[in-house]
Amino acid sequence: MTTQSTHTPAHTLFKVLPGAEGAAVTNVAIWFNDQPLTVPGGRSVAAALLAAGVSRFRATPVSGAPRAPFCMMGACFDCLVEIDGVPSRQACMVEVKAGMRIRSQEGARDLPPVSFADAPMENAHGR
């Protein structure tokens, strides 16, 4: 499988239009695949990662093909990532917050434990 570089490129496809924010953009520090990233705050996880140059969010369960956000409105599920230990979160539907730990979702997600009483729901898959 291909690993995603988390460096910030000189240019990105998704940029905030001048004057669209009103005030200056506040950056927040997050972790993506165990690498520190500084991303623009006040937007979805997907928009923040795209603005930082991340182009691969997950791999498909069958072929391992790379996927990234497509619809940006919660309909397509191509932006699924693990956020703070919770798998299968739609990155386009979650606002980015400082300190978030985000991981690419590789293939099918794990099945939940047999008994939900055995594991806290915040980290049901032991990650």
TrEMBL record:
One Gene Ontology molecular-function label: oxidoreductase activity
Coiled-coil regions, chain positions: none
The name this protein goes by in its record: 2Fe-2S ferredoxin-type domain-containing protein
Organism from which the protein derives: Paraburkholderia graminis (strain ATCC 700544 / DSM 17151 / LMG 18924 / NCIMB 13744 / C4D1M)
Gene3D superfamilies: 2Fe-2S iron-sulphur cluster binding domain, sarcosine oxidase, alpha subunit, N-terminal domain (3.10.20.440)
Keyword Oxidoreductase assigned: yes
Record bears the keyword Ion transport: no
Keywords from the UniProt entry: Oxidoreductase
InterPro entries in the cross-refs: 2Fe-2S-bd_N (IPR042204), 2Fe-2S_ferredoxin-like_sf (IPR036010), 2Fe-2S_ferredoxin-type (IPR001041)
Location of the 2Fe-2S ferredoxin-type domain: 26-108
